[in-house]
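Closing statement on the L-homoserine sub-project.
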Amino acid sequence: MGMRSVLVRVPASTANLGPGFDCLGMALSLYTWIEMKPADKATVIRLHGEGLEGIPLDKSNLIYKTAQLVFQETGTDLPELEIDMYSDIPLTRGLGSSASAIVGALTAASELTGGGLDRDALLQIASRLEGHPDNVGASLFGGIVAAAWDGTRADCLRIEPPAGLAALVAIPRFQLSTEKARHALPEQLALSDAVHNIGRSSLLVAALAGGRLDMIRHAMKDKLHQPYRAALIPGMAEVLEGASDHGALGAALSGAGPTLLALIENGSPRMRELEAFLLSTLSAAGVDADLLLLQPDPAGAVVLEGADPALPFAERIKGEVHS
Ligand code: HSE
């Protein structure tokens, strides 16, 4: 077993992409870094950066607990860990921050055991923890993922993102818990709505896999979750309705929200128009939001080799952070 320290970088993710509720995801170029090593004495957890107040620093910490699941499965005895974490992914906004923490913890812990679990095994643990594989699949494999989960096993295939695809995200300055956003959903759906979503979701996968960016606007439509969640995010309905008329290839609620995602081609001459549309529409609904232009992340979770272990954690990831 290697006793070195392991540094991993994990991308944010956007789940659902509109019609693919709990089944489609895309990794985005906004990151969490986790460094993990066996502790000499007691467990120490250090969180770097802003907005991480309230996250436990004892053994109830999600990263610590998730790492221990890997150690259990591999028969490794590492009860005391030193963990450093920095994240550019805002919490509780629908950009997969908890999924990135889970995937980072699993990847780092597996690497500490000398690569004890492969990525499929990590996907199974991550899906069990999250309850669906869309965010965790994207953070783990990168690119775009189509995934299915039956409560026991997750099956996930990665699609290479089409060249030139970018994601303009509008991040409202309020938090929305996934629990609250799931609570807004009905228990049952009309068969016609289910058929609507199967059609759009299938079309979206085919459009993304085949580079048919022109079809995204027809495919990125949903009757399964977005209409029920719209009441929780003022301005959302207007954004989803109008984004394609202002330069977007398509638009969706990012995961359980409140972030809104508009796909657009890199270098589009209508970028400024789309930015203005998103901000003014949300502002008219009383919502302040921050825009970020992100790229699909192709790599997923990666172990960063070569950073000088003598440098402090903040120095080792410097130059890579977004803000
Ligand atoms: N697919 C999930 C949802 C993502 O929309 O609720 C958030 O975990």
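The first strand starts at residue 6 and ends at 15. With this model delivered, the sub-project is considered complete and its resources will be redirected to Aim 3.
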